[in-house]
């Protein structure tokens, strides 16, 4: 059976999400446990992760603007993958300050170009009407890749040691690059990929200052900042806590936690995309934001590894909702403006700022007051994020939003 060029491009796009997850998972949550097992103290680990987060923060918004501007989106993805491989090679070496911070510089600098570019290509191929569903399916493939890599990394690290994690990550860049090349460049509508309503004859992007006048968008970004200030450090802290007493078991435990989270995302992401397109964004976001403070408190009450892994179901719910619905809110608020990727870059910057703050605050709380105080402090921040989402942010899906909310500006 012959498939159309668009169908083939979508297939390659889905598998690209799978293999990008393979690369990024190997270079993400395992780094903290790797450094602790190599003799780094929690504060030093926190600062190293914070440095990588700050590099990402510095690059996210410019990356969004660059993605809006360029027609060479596939080349951008290939280049970013190459930079990630260089970061993995540095981590394979003995974890000195120079190699770790160099790797964080490369990884933090490349990451901002990956997910936003894939989202832009998706919008350019599928269009606005089908984006919700396709983006959910993309995230399902991404999470399936995370599950696959977590299992493979657990085996590789147990059999060959932590450095094998980064070898695995580097190797998966090869099929990811092949998927990028498999996407038919002619299927990407580059005006549509940046959010310009070509169907309505609007060929120009709006001014950047117009985004700054959107109060709904600004309040949403504040809620996202608080959410990630609470969320980002929780799983790495669990890995650090277990690494102190049983370094050999830390990587399998981290893999199990990631598997639980990513299985939930893989199962629910496509369904969430469909649900968000009919029932709206806000109810789902309240669910995702609401389970995070509960998770933080439970970490202070539970100590058995099996139960800690079970608690990761809450992480799966929170992250499934966020990774799918947050970008849909951005699409809602930028539809027709031609600034979709720039706003997505600002969203990613906000996530990066929150993650950097989370790792720094979490590491300092652990050093001063211990792990329990850190988890409780992060849970308190999550509660504030939930309250803001409930009180200050309206529904953004155009067909469900109140007219005054749909056009709310300063």
Task: Set down the secondary structure blueprint.
Layout: H1 5-26, H2 30-37, H3 42-69, H4 73-92, H5 97-110, H6 115-126, H7 128-160, H8 163-171, H9 173-182, H10 208-212, H11 215-231, H12 234-245, H13 247-279, H14 282-301, H15 305-334, H16 340-369, H17 371-392, H18 403-406
Overview of the structural elements:
The protein is mostly helical and 410 residues long. It has a single domain, classed as MFS general substrate transporter like domains (Growth Hormone, Chain: A), CATH 1.20.1250. Helix content is 80%, strand content 0%. α2 packs antiparallel against α3 (42-69), α3 (42-69) packs parallel to α5 and α7 packs antiparallel against α13. The termini are far apart.
Tell me the number of strands. Answer: 0
Largest sheet entry: none
| Low-pLDDT sequence parts | 406-410
Helical residues, percent: over 70%
- Please indicate the percent range of residues in DSSP E strands (runs of 2 or more): under 5%
Number of helices: 18
CATH homolog superfamily: MFS general substrate transporter like domains
Overall 3D shape: globular
Number of domain modules: 1
Estimated structural class: mainly alpha
CATH architecture title: Up-down Bundle
CATH topology: Growth Hormone, Chain: A
The averaged pLDDT comes out at 79
H/E series, N to C?
HHHHHHHHHHHHHHHHHH
| Cα-to-Cα separation, first versus last residue | 54 Å
User: What is the radius of gyration computed over CA atoms, rounded to a whole number of angstroms?
Assistant: 20 Å
Question: Mind telling me the CATH class?
Answer: Mainly Alpha
């Amino acid at each position: 059976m012959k498939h159309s060029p668009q169908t083939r491009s979508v297939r390659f796009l889905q598998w690209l999400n799978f293999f990008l997850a393979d690369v990024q998972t190997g270079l993400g949550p395992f780094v903290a446990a790797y450094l602790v097992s190599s003799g780094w103290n929690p504060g030093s680990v926190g600062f190293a992760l914070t440095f990588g987060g700050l590099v990402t923060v510095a690059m996210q918004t410019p990356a969004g603007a660059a993605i809006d501007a360029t027609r060479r989106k596939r080349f951008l993805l290939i280049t970013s993958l190459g930079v990630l491989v260089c970061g993995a090679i540095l981590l394979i070496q003995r974890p000195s300050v120079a190699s770790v911070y160099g790797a964080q510089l490369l990884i933090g600098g490349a990451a901002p170009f990956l997910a936003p570019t894939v989202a832009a290509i998706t919008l350019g191929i599928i269009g606005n009407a089908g984006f919700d569903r396709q983006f959910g399916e993309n995230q399902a493939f991404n999470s399936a890749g995370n599950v696959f890599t977590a299992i493979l990394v657990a085996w590789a690290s147990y059999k060959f040691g932590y450095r094998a994690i980064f070898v695995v990550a580097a190797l998966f860049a090869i099929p990811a690059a092949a998927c990028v090349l498999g996407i038919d460049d002619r299927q990407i509508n580059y005006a549509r990929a940046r959010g310009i309503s070509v169907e309505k004859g609007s060929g120009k992007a709006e001014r950047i200052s117009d985004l700054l006048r959107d109060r709904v968008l600004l309040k949403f970004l504040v809620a996202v900042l608080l959410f990630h200030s609470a969320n980002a450090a929780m799983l790495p802290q669990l890995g650090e806590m277990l690494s102190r007493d049983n370094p050999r078991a830390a990587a399998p435990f981290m893999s199990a936690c990631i598997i639980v989270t990513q299985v939930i995302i893989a199962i629910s992401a496509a369904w969430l995309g469909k649900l968000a397109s009919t029932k709206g964004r806000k109810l789902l976001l309240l669910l995702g934001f609401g389970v995070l403070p509960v998770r933080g408190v439970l970490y202070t009450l539970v100590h058995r590894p099996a139960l800690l892994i079970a608690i990761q179901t809450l992480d799966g719910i929170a992250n499934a909702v966020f990774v799918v619905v947050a970008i849909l809110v951005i699409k809602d608020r930028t539809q027709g403006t031609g600034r979709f990727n720039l706003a997505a870059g600002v969203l990613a910057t906000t996530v990066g700022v929150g993650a950097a703050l989370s790792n720094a605050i979490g590491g300092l709380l652990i050093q001063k007051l211990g792990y329990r105080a850190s988890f409780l402090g992060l849970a308190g921040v999550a509660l504030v994020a939930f309250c803001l989402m409930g009180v200050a942010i309206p529904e953004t899906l155009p067909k469900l939003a109140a007219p005054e909310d749909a056009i709310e500006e300063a």
